[in-house]
Amino acid sequence: MTSMNSADPSAPDHQDTLHRRGLMFILSSPSGAGKTTIARKLLAADSEIKLSVSATTRPAREGEVEGVHYHFVDDATFDRMVEEDDFYEWAHVFGHRYGTPKGHIRNALKDGQDFLFDIDWQGTQQLYQKDQQDTVSVFILPPSIEALRERLEGRGTDSADVIDSRMERAKAEISHWAEYDYVVINDDLEACFAKVSEILNAERMRRTRQTGLIPFVRELTV
Ligand code: 5GP
Question: For residue 59, what pLDDT is reported?
Answer without folding.
Answer: 97
